[in-house]
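Many introductory courses stop at the sequence. We go one step further.
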Amino acid sequence: MKPWIDDAIDLVEFANGPVTSKWGAIRASMGHPKPFNLEYICLGNEEDDIPAFRERFAMAKDSLRKYYPGIKIIGTSGTTSAGRDYTSLWKFSRENQLAAVDEHYYNDPDWFLNNIHRYDNFDRKGPKVFIGEWASKDDQLYNAIVEAAYLTGIEKNADVVELTCYAPLLCNEKHQQWHPDLIRFDNTSVMKTPSYYVQQLYSINAGDNYIPSTVSYQPGFKLTSDDYSGMVGVGSWGTQVQYDELKLTSNNKLLYEDNFTAVSSDWTVQDGAFSCLNGVYAQTSEEQPALSINQKTEVSDTYTYTVKAMKTGGAEGFVIPFGYKDAKNYYWLNIGGWGNTQHAIERVSDGRKSTMYVVSGSIKNNQWYDIKVEVVRNVLKCYLDGQLIFNLPDPTGPVTASVTEDVKANDYLIKLVNSGSESISSSILISGMPISQNAGVTTLTGNKADKNSLENPDLIKPVATTIKVSNSFEYTLPPYSFQIFRFSKGHPVAMKPASKPLKKK
């Protein structure tokens, strides 16, 4: 490890050392005698939590703290937004009193909409968060819009999320690995994706102080286009399982039950090998997934679904479908997924599966478990052996907001994101100061699946306009849109960069 640790020590000297030092002199000879004032060093990148990592991390950390105690050390939390390594590496980082932890996650668009409040309850006394790599999986307009919505939650929690850095910046059009890149190019031209513009607009309109705000809806407004109504079922992923004592109730009324004493025509096997065997419903194949849906269990918005489950073989656990409308639209509760390391709620929408919520967890072979899915309108709770593992509140609706203050420019900025498919007529109410002026509005919008291309690089790009604003004004939010209002007191409206990190106010 010595050559690697020496490189780290020399790096700090090159960046910050005086011109009289060995590496400071080399920096000066390259035309930069002034130190760079390097603040952070990140040790590791997408590491697994294994003994060798902990041993080597300690060597590098101790040496840096000995020779450069002012350098802030950033740890790592693996490759996902949750799971066994994520949890244990965060614990390791707290124990080592690190300055921040480097989180990496690439998730489906729905995940970002469902995790806008991810950092609301993060530990404020521990390390800060450095989101060192993140993106939703594609570069359509919709990806950019859900990222803009997610960033309203990041701005709200800027006291704990100290740094963010998007996914790959540059991609050669002829050598593509994936599509959450910000800038794409070939030998003659360059194209900016919709996500590029979201990052740019947040960068130059960050503000200094976070101003509390609320979003509310008129009574009867449908917060979501989807719900948990539909049929229920059982299943697995590459794993052999057994089920028993299935019950479906609503408002304490029994709607359906099956003790699997005989084969029932109520069940439709979608994939896998299901059969009634010795009073249980057994799935014996290695299909991924294996699903059987009960056609007699269609329920509306309030129900409780319970079933006993046992794993008899394979690498993962149970898959419990609910809210099943058809083969392309449903939810499932995944118990013991990802190699029996995590539990999750996943959603299939228009045939595309996305992971909504994940927690660490595992199950044992040949042990019966009690599983319960409880729905009260749009509130979802999931239990394993009586322990609550998921508690999903009412959806927050398609509109998210962030309000900040640019102190140097004496400007206020309102960011509003409509991630839904319908235009929304909004009333914007501002209190605490008299307002009557023109405001700059920058809007990014278009068709949900639109992409920029080298042939059409400006299909999606921000459009700037000016509107009249007051303490109460009306504005229609287009579908799939991100807009920034900037207004000031006593001087012309202008886009200005942020001067320092956000603080709550």
